[in-house]
Amino acid sequence: FLVFDGKLLASLKMDPTRNCIFCKIAAKQDPKATILYDDDQVTVFKDIKPVSQFHFLVISKEHIRNAAHLKSQHLPLLEHMENIGKEMITKHEGNQNDSRMGFHWPPFNSVNHLHLHVIFPVGKMNFFNKMTFPTGRTPWYAPVGYDQ
Predict the structure, then answer these.
(1) What predicted TM-score, i.e. pTM, was given to this entire model?
(2) In the chain, fewer beta carbons within 10 Å around the N or the C end?
(3) How far is 74 from 137, CA to CA, in rounded Å?
(4) 55 is a catalytic site residue
(5) Which of 55, 104, 113, 115 is flagged as catalytic?
(6) Phi and psi at residue 16, in whole multiples of 5°?
């Protein structure tokens, strides 16, 4: 509580979702976002800084800060996010063998809300972007399905 001159002014209750742009997109409160898919668990929209012809973000409706905050109970959500990512590749006539899906690892994530990058075709990515979104695990990126 904040007290000034003996009076109760405000409660300092921090709500991480209040200013989260991805929470606003999931709640359909951001008119600039191009939502491509939406269900009770996830929302998919176009990345504002695409690194290839198609670059989508699959975000959880639940505010999970980042991939480092995932728990075993989130496994069904992660599987759903991956399946929706694959559906987006198929829907846009992409090739799953020419795609990248993964999570940036903190502190290298730009928005503190769990989001899966779905990028294709890889053949249209420049060298820097291929290093930013690599096929293997790095300190900054964890690709889907990489378990080593």
Answers:
(1) 0.86
(2) C
(3) 20
(4) no
(5) 115
(6) -65, -20
Three-state secondary-structure class, residue 15: coil
25 sits in which H/E element: helix 21-26
DSSP assignment, residue 31? T
Per-residue pLDDT tens digits of the chain, which is 148 residues long: 344 445 443 333 445 567 899 999 999 999 999 999 999 999 999 999 999 999 999 999 999 999 999 999 999 999 999 999 999 999 999 999 999 999 998 888 889 999 999 999 999 999 999 999 999 999 999 999 755 4
Which token pair is 104? 């940036």
**Residue 5 region by backbone torsions, left for phi larger than 0, else alpha for psi between -120 and 50, else beta:** left
Amino acid at site 88:
M
Amino acid identity, position 86: K
Q: Which tokens is 48 given?
A: 């504002």
Contact by Cβ (8 Å): 104, 49:
no
